[in-house]
Amino acid sequence: MTADTHAALVALVRDEGRRVMATLVRTTGSWELAEDAVQDAALRALETWSRDGIPAEPRAWLTLTARRRALDVLRREAARTGKQQEAVTLMDQRGTAEDLPGSVVRDDLLRLIFTCCHPALSPQTQVALALRTLAGLSTAETARALLVPEQVMAKRLTRAKQKIRDAAIPYRVPPDAELPARLRGVGATVYLMFNEGWAPGAGDTVVRPDLLDEAVRLARLLHELMPDEPTATGLLALLLLLDARRASRAGPDGSPLLLREQDRALWDRALVDEGMALLGDGLRRTPERPDPYVVQAAIAACHVLAPHPQATDWRAICSWYDVLLTVQDVPAVRLARAVALAERDGPAAGLAALEHVRGLERTAALHAARAELLLQCGHGPAAVAAYDRALALPASGPQAKHLQGRRAAAQAASQ
Amino acid sequence: MTLYAAIIYSTDVDWSAREQAGEMAEYAAFSTTAAAVLRGGAALYPTATATTVRVTGGKGGEVLSTDGPYAETKEVLTGFFLLECADLDAALALAAQIPAAWNGAVEVRPVIPMGQPS
């Protein structure tokens, strides 16, 4: 087996395993048991499939193996407590192999998102649990994505799973009336999952296609579930308009490219069209109060509609950021607005706006943006210093390489 | 089904006082609403009646009793209900109808099943 086919096999097992996990949580009623059983089944799949080939129905294979494993564990536990019959009936009642059609898996995944985003869990925990379970990130990766020490993350995840079990947080999509109230957490989770795929906080790739695919798929599910909710429409529009640019984000050598350096011929026109149609719908549905995702989708649209970088309508982008600030005044939006302002009014105006951005001192993005504008203003040494600060903060491999390249350019310019 | 304790925190009140009749009626209404899942509960006398006991030095140590409740806060434990519900959502929906939830807070926690015949 070549390294490539092995990597494909690992990806398949991980991808299918995530879906099987959603089903197992429902059929066993226990998060921990489901996780253990699916992990065990995934290990067996890797062993067996690399030897005998991939079965015709990988998901069915994994589900069945994970179910057997869960049943074994339940029987063993039950034997100790004398509740054998109870345990076995529980599993039998909760469905068998007919759980496999795509629609059931789809519903299970939705249930799992809503369980992760239950308001009885704190917002940080909701996102952590969703990244860990739905996006298949490891505990270490989840910890990095949310800037928390790994041990803290591990404890937080364990507590969350215990709370779900002990407090009997329901594993279901809430009734229609409760959906809008839950949408905020679910939307934020899907958005963060996409973000982590779009600009990974660590690792060796410019984008993580598995996360992007999963986030887009979940956004589609949400929109299907709540077609009249501007948040669901706007989120899907935003993700599609960004994802349309996926193929152009990295150069042939795997290094990240700035928007203005990207080959626009690589953009996925079908996704752009779909995203634009959704954006129109989202804008029509939010006349009084703008929805943050709809506004961000409008900004993404300004970028994909420009045939070349010089044609970008920075005035429109700046006004959309001003609109966004009225509903979402957070440091990340202020940073993005400062960068847009620099394009519209020049680097000095951008630098002045950056002075008012607070709370991002520990992110590479802020220092990198400052460095870039300092360089454009001709302050080479200050730019080098700002790149040094950016480089001292966590970043993915390609991102760090890019920053080093820019630092060298700044160094050369200041001599 | 899970047993939930809906623990009521509100301003300290004397439920035995006559002027509480109006709010008592609200609680009676809640008890009717929740009758099917209500497994118990009690209102407590005000914190002025509380005595806190602590044993220093562990088991068998010296018994220290203090006048008053454990902590002095605006909202104190004034009572609780035991609700048997299918899941947390059901328990939270009921807890939101407890009068104290309107001007105080109601904490919902699952009860550990102990000593029940299996």
From TrEMBL, chain B:
Q: Name one Pfam family in it.
A: YCII
SUPFAM superfamilies assigned: Dimeric alpha+beta barrel
Please list the residue ranges annotated as the YCII-related domain: 8-114
Q: Which InterPro entries match?
A: Dimeric_a/b-barrel (IPR011008), YCII (IPR005545)
Which family does the entry's similarity section mention? Answer: Belongs to the YciI family.
What PANTHER family does the record tag this protein with? Answer: BLL7171 PROTEIN, BLL7171 PROTEIN-RELATED
What is the name of this protein?
A: Transcription initiation protein
